[in-house]
Amino acid sequence: PAKKPKVARLISSTSTFKARRIEEFYDLRDEIGSGTCGTVRRAINRKTGEMVAVKVIAIGNQGGLHRTFSKISKDGLLDPNIRAEISILQNMSHPYVVKLIDHFVHPGKAVFLVMELMQGGDLFDRIIQKGCYSELESRRIMRRMLAAVHYLHEDRDIVHRDLKPENILCVSRKNDIEVKLTDFGLAKSITEDGLKTFCGTPQYFAPEVLRRRNTVAGTGRYGKEADIWSIGVILYILLSGAPPFEATMDASSSTMISFDGHAWRNITDDAKDLISRMLTKNPSQRINIKDACSHRWILIEDGDTHVHPLNDPVVLEAIGGTQANDSCRNGHGQEGPQCPSPCDPIQNNNEIRNIINGGQS
Ligand code: 3AM
Predict the structure, then answer these.
(1) What is the ipTM of this complex?
(2) d(CA 255, CA 264)
């Protein structure tokens, strides 16, 4: 009998990956956007009509996708990193984490991650459009992101390692608050020793991550605390429309954070206290995720119906099935109050984009 080709034998030997063709199950449509990991396209489930987003990670130099090929070799074998990303996503179930619905491997060509469709674009673009968020809105976004990170850190022992506004997606165009975390391309299960690989986006790097990079032998380690630092940077940007540190790689290890600018005039001390605790340089003194979720600024009663991370897991599971659509499930159809600190979006735009991107695409 004819021997099965080597590649097919190896692919089918990894139970996680199915050699099914995506076209049989999904009608691939227009491109939504592109990132460092390839393109994201809209698609429709042929059976149910459900609209989804499909992240296409190409192998080889096809269709203008040139960037991620090192992840999969040309003979179609999956790189352990991408295998790890899929495995992390497959086991993820949380109302504030973008859901992986399915995945397809086309040996030698591409990997397709079928994801829950987020209709509202990313938080980065929202910040650029709005200039900055009001304190009420920022708190509501933070609650959701802290709940997602609480799930990663406490329930799954995973560090995201690339928390930034580009990886926070909005459920709908009409709503500024309902957000979910995505892109686990750099996420890792934490070991007792802590993580050693240097990765992420410079603007959001914690000092201990920078220190590790600057050590020749790379002996430094970093863990969950680095994610908290990144959230602190995001909160600072939400409230002020500007980043806390210069884009240079060493800024966060040498500069004190300042709340001096005009934008901070009307921000409460509680908000500043949480930011200071998140942006504490010594990781062992930095606030942890549990305490951040229970910080008094986060717990202020403001009518938000957000799912608290310490709620019953059964409640979380029930709400986790909610699909993205144009009407907010929490009744936040209306925009929150306007930003109390008058910031000038046009003046800030280019500067923010440059600084946030930290010189990276
Ligand atoms: O290229 P832009 O920034 O417009 O918002 C994400 C980004 O768009 C979008 O794809 C681009 C590359 O990451 N994106 C990622 N995941 C998505 C999803 N699940 C998504 N859009 C909708 N649903």
Answers:
(1) 0.97
(2) 18
